[in-house]
Amino acid sequence: MPKIKKEKKAKDEDLFKVVDSTIDTRTERNIYEVSRELHIEEVLGAISSGKEAKVYPARGEDGKWYALKIYYVSTAASKRAFQKYTFSDPRFKDIKVSNTRQLIATWARKEFKNLKILFDAGVRVPEPYLVYENILTMQFIGEEGFRAPLLKELPAEEITKELYDEVINQVEIMVNKARIIHCDLSEFNIMVYDNLPYIIDVGQAIFIEEEQSHALELLRRDIDNINRFFKDMEIEIMPTEEILKRLKINI
Questions:
Q1: Which of 20, 24, 165, 184 is catalytic?
Q2: Long-range contacts of 53-59, Cβ-Cβ distance < 8 Å, separation of 24 or more
Q3: Which domains does the chain have, with CATH numbers?
Q4: pLDDT exceeds 60 at position 78
Q5: How confident is the model at residue 101 (pLDDT cuts 50, 70, 90)?
Q6: Which of 40, 79, 132, 145 could serve as a FRET partner for 160 with CA atoms 20 to 30 Å apart?
Q7: Is 24 among the residues known to form the active site?
Q8: By the 8 A CB rule, do 218 and 206 touch?
Q9: Residue 194 falls in the annotated catalytic set
């Protein structure tokens, strides 16, 4: 029996190679649970860091790569953001949250559900695989643990009219098929892989019919953000009002 425990400890140490102050004991345990479920062999250091979470690449036994989005459980800023966007979502209005960790877990489930709806509607987003407490596991956009660049990070010669048109096409699918508005769309949460845009960070996304009073304003802001970026890069854009005419807001 002691030998088995020793082997398990060695295996755990091999799995988790991240030294990170945001990983507390319970989150580390959660990583082990996710790893067992998906047969993950190794979790590497963070490849992106935001106000609410960090994203880590993870490699499965079969060589498949995953993205583990691990939400912070102790920062006041993340708690305020989660409260704002979670409690205003009718899907979670009956959820009883007694502590911050439960709030974060609810937010993780919200982003998982948004990704699933968008993916099923044909929007190019990371495919969601699993959500467990404060960890969302999804498709890795990139190769061999190296993430694809954000739109903001692309060299100027790769920012084209074709790319702009495809971003607008993704917005159209989001609105017309998934009935979702991103609410924070910009060059900072669009990844580009094989010249195709992938929409990320959808935890704050809303359903159009459930936020009718603000939907048009939020959608216009998303489109304005995209148009501003591409216009600054000297790409021909469509006026925001013309794009809105293609979208079925119905409010």
A1: 184
A2: 53/78, 54/20, 54/22, 55/147, 56/18, 57/140, 57/142, 57/145, 57/146, 57/147, 58/137, 58/140, 59/145
A3: 24-146 (3.30.200.20), 149-246 (1.10.510.10)
A4: no
A5: confident
A6: 145
A7: no
A8: yes
A9: no
